[in-house]
Amino acid sequence: MAIRARRYADAKAQASSNTELLWWVFMRVSGLVMVFLVLGHIYMNFVLIDVSTINYTYVAERLSNTTWKIYDWLILVLAMLHGMNGLRYVMDDWIRNPARRFATKAVVYSLAVLVVIVGSFSLFNHDFSKDLKQAAQTQGSVKP
Amino acid sequence: MQVTLKVMRHDPAKNAKPGWQTYSVEAEPMDRVLDLLHKVKWYQDSSLAFRRSCGHGICGSDAMVINGVNQLACKALVKNLGMLIQVEPLHGLPVEKDLIVNMEGFFAAYRSVKPYLINEEQPPERERLQSPEDRAVFDTSTKCILCAACTTSCPVFWVNGSYIGPAAIVQAHRFIFDSRDKGLRERMQALNASTGLWRCRTAYNCTEACPRGIPVTKAIEEVKRAMIYDRF
What's the rounded mean pLDDT across residues A18-45? Predict the structure, then answer.
């Protein structure tokens, strides 16, 4: 097909790529994976322990383990990608003015990136095991 | 019996805004909406504009919104519609006059999926043969009459007219699932675009709207599957 596009949007529409196909597959796969990840999360925080007695020590204990860090990070990233792509579908469908669509996407994507960065930092840039040791020490010193 | 026919009229050359016009028409229960439109045009108001060619549900010229549902005027019977019948032009396409819409974008989408046999191989002595079983795979898709009832019932097409639309995907299905055709990759270019197949949100409006009974959404899902299997 000869290139007849005069605007960037037209060129993008005519360009041949599998991006949309891959996103479509990602939505199915990530949705299914998240069902099990979140069920596991619910089991750990609502069944193994009473949600009214859950405290920082319980969470810090779990998050001092790298496996659970990656587990939680997967939920964060998959949920954000899955949700944001769904929102992208909605924005592409409903915001018809190209300038307004660009602006809305810029704001939404920036917020999404910010959420992922803050979430990743709080998971990986904090030493939960140190907290646990400190807690144990203070508890030990209080005890006679 | 007397039937009230409400028609959404619009002449962009005269009025900026469309508006309803009501006609009282003498009708039999087995009359079609097309007959009512003829009675209005021939005996009451010759300025009424609408398309029709064969009048027997084959040419696909007279698709319109009848009582809120996309139908062919030549297949919609008065006995099924009641005493008040509302007729509007198809939604999502620009109105040229009254019930006539501009189909240019619709046919551009149709052309973009290359609705013809693509096979570069040397044809055999007589013809490319196909078994009845292979023919049956895409049988329903061959029944499309390009009336645009499905595409103009699609909510994604309403809000964003650049979507390729169900009719074009059904046409792609007709050739992609033809055992003699080798053009999947070529058709994927239009179907894989950001305005293509993956915009489908399976609202099922198209399946309900099709006057030929084509399971449109099923065809769309089959094309999605064919493209994923080609990729992975």
Answer: 92
Do A1 and B189 count as a contact with CB atoms less than 8 A apart? yes
Q: Looking up tokens 């191989």, which residue turns up?
A: B121
Give the domain CATH number at A45: 1.20.1300.10
Q: Do A21 and B228 touch (CB under 8 A)?
A: yes
**Is-above-0.90 flag for pTM?**
no
Strand partners, B87: B7, B66
**Contact residues on chain A for B162, CB-CB shorter than 8 A:** 13
Query: If pLDDT is split at 50, 70 and 90, which confidence band does A37 have?
Result: very high
Complex-level ipTM? 0.79
Instruction: Give the number of other CB atoms < 10 A from CB of residue B83.
Output: 10
* Partners of residue B85 on adjacent β-strands: B5
Write out the two tokens for B179.
């055992």
Q: Which residues contact A58 (CB under 8 A, 6 or more apart)?
A: A49
| Chain B contacts to A (CB-CB under 8 A) | 156, 159-160, 162, 188-189, 192-199, 201, 224, 227-228, 231-232
Residues with Cβ within 8 Å of B68's Cβ and at least 6 positions away in sequence, in order, are B86
Q: Which domains are seen in chain B, by residue range?
A: 2-101 (3.10.20.30), 104-231 (1.10.1060.10)
